[in-house]
Design brief:
By secondary structure, the protein is α/β, with parallel strands linked by helices. The chain folds into 2 domains: 5-72 and 107-233, no CATH class; 77-104, no CATH class. The protein has 7 helices and 7 strands; from the N terminus they run H-H-H-E-E-H-E-E-E-H-E-H-E-H. Helix 1 (5-18) packs parallel to helix 2 and helix 5 runs parallel beside helix 6 (176-183). The two termini are 29 Å apart.
């Protein structure tokens, strides 16, 4: 399958960045490629994710003005039923009188807005293990209190969740531990992994002997999932 120029640029950017050859970005005429390189390792997954969203939107033939990736902090309000559990009347009275000041600010790595409406929250990770997944699920649960119809995505370079999350297959059966965690949260989480093979702690991919290529099948699978979610939201 012939890859689009945009997808090939992402694959090239990943390759040169992870191998440490970021100087080539300075001589590149390809903005997408150079931009991802310069973003640095810490923002690599986030940069790839944003590019995938923009590429998916473009391939759907939708108006670019309808899409925004501007990250806005969300205020999660205090749940008023919580007041019933407070035993101290003084504390309860104080909170009631100052309720507008009681909130928790929250944001994730990539916020997708369509027609100025927050439609998708994407967490970006170099890798994820189940202990980290618990925190992600808590954050997404809080988001859902304010945006009940929000779509949720975890996009990771490598997986440490077990099962077949590190396969490039469109359908993934997951792992027992991850499914068990997911069963306790009312979150429809789309887990996307870009690199094949379970993450090994003692084999970091930035070292040449452990380097993993960004396979076209994996990135195209991620693109199709994102495209499907965007298509549904853009109706």
């Amino acid at each position: 399958m012939k890859l689009s120029k945009d997808i090939q640029s992402l694959i090239n950017a990943y390759k040169f960045l992870v191998k440490g050859i970021d100087k080539k970005a300075k001589h590149s005429d390809d903005r997408a490629y150079g931009g991802v390189i310069r973003a640095g390792k810490g923002l690599l997954v986030e940069s790839i994710t944003k590019s995938l969203v923009e590429i998916a939107w473009k391939e759907l033939g939708l108006n670019s003005k309808r899409l925004s990736l501007e990250k806005q902090t969300v205020k999660i309000p205090l749940k008023e039923i919580y007041l019933e559990r407070i035993k101290s009347p003084e504390v309860k009275k104080y909170i009631k009188e100052n309720l507008k000041d009681f909130y928790y600010t929250l944001k994730t790595d990539v916020h997708v807005y369509i027609d100025k409406k927050f439609e998708m929250a994407i967490e970006c990770k170099a890798y994820t293990e189940n202990a980290m997944l618990k925190r992600i699920l808590v954050d997404f649960t809080l988001f859902k209190q304010v945006y009940p119809n929000l779509d949720f995505v975890l996009l990771q370079l490598e997986s440490q969740l077990g099962g077949d999350y590190s396969s490039p297959n469109y359908v993934k059966y997951g792992s027992p531990s991850t499914h068990t965690l997911l069963s306790y949260f009312d979150i429809g989480l789309n887990i996307l992994t870009l690199l094949e093979g379970e993450r090994k702690v003692d084999k970091p991919i930035h070292k040449s002997e452990y380097y993993k290529p960004l396979d076209s099948k994996s990135i195209l699978t991620a693109l199709e999932v994102i495209k499907s979610l965007l298509k549904e939201k853009a109706k």
